[in-house]
Amino acid sequence: MYSVLIVDEEQEDRARLQAILKQSALPVAEVREAANGEEALVLLSRNPADAVITDIHMPKMDGLDLCARVHKLWPDCALFMLVGYDDFEYAEGALGLGIQGYISKPVTPSMVLRTIAQSLGSGQVAEEQSSYIPFSVLEGALQLLDRGVWEDSEPELDEACRLLFKNFGVCSLAYCRRTAEELFHILVGKLSQRMGYALDIQLPPFTGRTHNELYQWFLDTEQLIIRMIRNRKRNADYNLIHMAKNYVKENYNSEVSLVEVSRKVGLNASYFSQLFKAQTGQTFVHYRSKVRMQKAMEFLSCPEKTVTEVTFEVGYRDITHFIRTFKKYTGLSPSQFRLQNGIGL
């Protein structure tokens, strides 16, 4: 039976890991906790552990420093590191520190058991996990999936599938399924962070019995997430353009520019210009002119207003430019418009 030390600043995370270990089939007799690296070293000096699971970011002494010291003082101790979405590059500094596995946050029971079963050798669990995919491969596949799904890029999605299923061929089906599910859960978390709100995506259950069926499930799930992102993006784009149009309507009498409106909706000017044309079928400048001309016709319907007054009230500073634009839009000069509509006669 083995002893394990969990090192994490967050008490809630330590409790979750402890519960996973105690409820598992792993041969773990004792699970201790420490809130930081210094506290962990004190506990280990009194009673060494067979394995240490440590977070990478902690006060006083971070996970990398702790692993370096534990590896030097207790070289037989198995080391596992908890890493978040943005810790992959930082975790590269752990090379040579004897770390035997990485556990992605937020932790899941299958991820924890899959990672540490190799070292703690738990009969059925260890046998099931005897073949596993290297951390670097999972990281690479996740990055490709992230870019491929977000940018709807077929080449990167194809490469992610090739990378994963090249390695899946030597793993048990149960392990492959769990790994694929965890990758998708992490991916949905990353996409939710990027979009600023939670994506409620329910992964379809896998009921197949072969690696080929798992491959098809992987492709179907990939397309499900892409459709969800595409729909959310489309709705978000529609809302942004709706905001932009309202802003123009509210500020028709000022020097409202494409750059100003694009900033208001949080987009760069070039992308905003393309998106506006795609969503409305007209350029931003044409839409702004249309709003101003509609207001101009409304004001010209008031006989007490002069053409000069109307020119300035709809945001123009040059009466000649206003008259030219009005005639282009209506086919009439302001005076002809009034005459045709019996205004001021």
Can you put this structure into words, describing what you see?
The modification 4-aspartylphosphate is found at residue 55. This is Transcription regulator hth arac- type. Pfam families: HTH_18 (PF12833), Response_reg (PF00072). The protein has 345 residues and is an alpha/beta fold. The protein has three domains: 2-122, Response regulator (Rossmann fold); 135-232; 251-345, Orthogonal Bundle (Arc Repressor Mutant, subunit A), CATH 1.10.10. 61% of the residues lie in helices and 9% in strands. The protein is built from 16 helices and five strands. The chain has helices at residues 11-22, 37-46, 63-73, 88-91, 109-120, 123-128, 135-151, 154-168, 173-195, 211-250, 258-264, 269-280, 284-300, 307-313, 319-330, 334-340; strands spanning 2-7, 28-34, 51-55, 78-83, 99-104. It has a five-stranded parallel sheet with strand order 2-1-3-4-5, sandwiched between helices. α7 (135-151) packs antiparallel against α8 (154-168) and α13 crosses α15. The longest helix has 40 residues, at 211-250. It is elongated. It starts with a strand and ends in a 5-residue tail after the last helix.
